[in-house]
Automatic annotation (TrEMBL):
GO terms for biological process: guanosine tetraphosphate biosynthetic process. GO terms for molecular function: hydrolase activity. It comes from Coprococcus comes. InterPro entries: NT_sf (IPR043519), RelA_SpoT (IPR007685). Pathway: Purine metabolism; ppGpp biosynthesis; ppGpp from GTP: step 1/2. Transmembrane segments: none annotated. Keywords: Hydrolase. SMART domains: RelA_SpoT. Residues 107-253 form the RelA/SpoT domain. This is Guanosine polyphosphate pyrophosphohydrolase.
Length: 329
């Protein structure tokens, strides 16, 4: 079995690593008649094409910029940022293998047998967030001093923006994808017309500290999917540097260990290989990697000039509120 780890110590570029890993993975898949590794290699080909195809990203980010300009005019009191990225190679590989492990485990727990390959193939066709944008808003404290009232007002603003976003982007060549009932919003601030398209981790979350609104669009020009996340600054802080980030990591570690204990080793090659690939990635010492434009002093101090670990940045748009009037005055 080959893994991405085998290609991260040669000093190659991201593109060469992807090409070599994809070619070797496909050869091994054909040799061993491994259908899932064939899907895996095709997924990596699509991922590489996104990294190589710059033209559509320029056009796509310009359309996102149109919404940024709309917000500058519509919400002058708010400060906000638009961030965009292509998922990192390491995270994309983790997620692909994680989907395999999760689906086989859930199927085994329910049916006490392993899923048919066609079912697993269908599960692995659901990647929609390789390209993702995040909108983070903040109502400056100079407008509302009371923390609770300000937080409530920010959430109202967030839902107002969420109500407008699908129609705005659909006029510019995007199609909102139905969420199929997953985490459908319970918020009275979200319009009924857009509720079927959002996964609402604010009003319908799992009880953890993570909060956000997620919606997926299909870009009809580039024929690719993208995800948009909407958060307040407090939500973003918790997700990125707070409790949600740490809790998610710890819970995932617990889930991974439990799944391995539940599935007897050697009974399902697809589970075994995906689990092993995922565990090897989790065990990476980033300071030892030899990838062009990447360096790390340890697993926290990272200079990622190629998007290997943190993803490739597409855009940052920032609007800092100029108004300093207290709304309570």
């Amino acid at each position: 079995m080959i893994t991405l780890n085998d290609y991260l110590y040669s000093g190659d570029t991201i593109f060469r690593i992807l090409r070599n890993y994809t070619v070797d993975l496909k050869k091994e898949a054909k040799k061993n008649h491994n259908e899932i590794d064939l899907i895996h290699s095709n997924f990596l080909i699509q991922f590489r094409e996104l990294l190589e195809h710059n033209d559509f990203l320029t056009a796509q980010s310009q359309k996102i910029r149109d919404f940024y300009k709309y917000m500058v005019q519509e919400y002058p009191l708010l400060a906000f940022t638009f961030k965009g990225r292509i998922k990192s190679l390491i995270r994309a590989e983790e997620k692909f293998n994680g989907y395999i492990v999760e689906y086989i485990y859930d199927y085994y727990e329910k049916h006490h047998t392993y899923p048919p390959v066609p079912d697993l193939r269908e599960k692995l066709s659901c990647f929609r967030d390789i390209i993702a944008y995040r909108l983070v808003i903040s109502l400056p404290k100079c407008h509302i001093r009371d923390d609770k009232l300000r937080e409530e007002e920010e959430i109202k603003y967030l839902y107002r923006i969420a109500n407008v976003l699908p129609g705005f982007l659909e006029e510019r060549g995007f199609t909102a994808e139905p969420a199929k009932g997953v985490l459908e919003s319970r918020s009275p601030f979200m319009d009924e017309a857009v509720k079927p398209y959002y996964r609402d981790y604010i009003s319908n979350g799992s009880g953890g500290s993570y909060q956000s609104l997620h919606i997926t669009f299909y870009d009809n020009c580039s024929r690719s999917y993208m995800e948009v996340q909407l958060r307040t600054k407090k939500m973003d802080d918790i997700a990125e540097i707070g409790a949600a980030n740490h809790q998610a990591y710890e819970k995932e570690q617990e889930r991974v260990r439990a799944r391995r204990e539940a599935i007897p080793e050697g009974e399902c090659i697809y589970f075994d290989e995906a689990y092993e690939r995922g565990m090897r990635l989790l065990g990476l010492e980033l300071k030892d990697l030899e990838v062009n434009m990447f360096a790390a002093a340890n697993n926290s101090l990272i200079n990622d000039g190629c998007g290997l670990y943190r993803g490739r940045l597409i855009l940052p748009y920032e609007h800092l509120s100029r108004f300093q009037t207290d709304l309570n005055d």
